[in-house]
Amino acid sequence: MAHQRIKLALIDLSGTLHVDDQPTEGAVEALKRLRQHGVQVKFVTNTTKESVGSLFERLRKIGFDLQRNEIYGSLGAAAEYVKKNNLNPYYLLTNDARTDMPDTDPERPLDSVVVGLAPDRFCYEHLNEAFRVLHQKGAKQKVQLVAVHEGRYYKAKDGIALGPGCFVKGLEYSTGVPAVCIGKPNEYFFRSALPDGISVEECVMIGDDPNDDCLGAMRIGMKGYLVETGKYQPEMYSEENRPAVSDIFATFSDVVQHIISCSDQ
């Protein structure tokens, strides 16, 4: 049976291509090989600790060849959501991530809370302020809780680290306001990352999160390839309960080799 030629690879960043300031094994050269084989790439990320500009500069510094406009992040998608809905949010974001978001208007009342990965702001003072915004009564418009993403954890250089998801769920529990999730695994996020002329059958998602990356993409018809260099911990699974993804590979480089081999058949 002939394999469907892959025209576009959606590639997660943290845990897939790099962990903090270190590329994963063979990732820099593998990305070059994938491009040379004629596969378009787009970097889709739920990273919210830093702005797209900072992320781009960091990736270039550690050896990756990419253009800034190839990065499609949940932070940018959240900024568009805020603008489209004319929100005036209280932000639980890092100062760097805030530079990608619309400014808060001091002349208008706060009507929403936007939550990303912001370790320094996940303290009682800031979470309580977010609670008060969401809990306010008599607002002229319905308050909104916007989750840039709801990741449970991620891979850092010193091990697995807590993501923003538990803080989003805590605010939901305390206020009764359901969150609008912007990033992966939201179907809209994946579909909006596809350029014109490329179908989901011609696209593959490569990431380190079984649910947010792989299964999220598979729900709309893409293949979802999982790598073991990030948050996925194979030792936590048995052969019987392994994630039902399209395939699992040790590294991003191994995925690239698989894509090239299949297209040559």
From TrEMBL:
Q: Which domain of life is it from?
A: Eukaryota
The main enzyme category here is hydrolase
Which PANTHER family does the UniProt entry name for this protein? Answer: 4-NITROPHENYLPHOSPHATASE-RELATED (PTHR19288), HALOACID DEHALOGENASE-LIKE HYDROLASE DOMAIN-CONTAINING PROTEIN 2 (PTHR19288:SF46)
Keywords (A to Z) from UniProt? Cytoplasm, Hydrolase, Magnesium, Metal-binding, Nucleus
Q: Kindly state which reaction or reactions the protein catalyses.
A: diphosphate + H2O = 2 phosphate + H(+)
List the PROSITE patterns: STAS
| Residue ranges occupied by any STAS domain in the UniProt entry | 1-82
Which species does the entry assign this protein to? Anopheles epiroticus
Name of this protein: Haloacid dehalogenase-like hydrolase domain-containing protein 2
Q: Name one Pfam family in it.
A: Hydrolase_like
Name the principal localization, coarsely classed. Answer: cytoplasm
Q: Of which family is this protein a member? A: Belongs to the HAD-like hydrolase superfamily.
| Cited function | Phosphatase that hydrolyzes imidodiphosphate, 3-phosphohistidine and 6-phospholysine. Has broad substrate specificity and can also hydrolyze inorganic diphosphate, but with lower efficiency.
Check the record and name the InterPro entries matching this protein: HAD-like_sf (IPR036412), HAD-SF_hydro_IIA (IPR006357), HAD_sf (IPR023214), LHPP/HDHD2 (IPR006355), STAS_dom (IPR002645)
Task: Cite the EC number.
Answer: 3.6.1.1
The compartments listed are:
Cytoplasm; Nucleus
> MF terms per GO, please?
inorganic diphosphate phosphatase activity; metal ion binding; phosphatase activity
SUPFAM superfamilies (UniProt xref)? HAD-like
**Cofactor(s) the protein requires to work:** Mg(2+)
GO CC terms of this entry: cytoplasm; nucleus
**What NCBIfam families is this protein classified in?**
HAD-SF-IIA, HAD-SF-IIA-hyp3
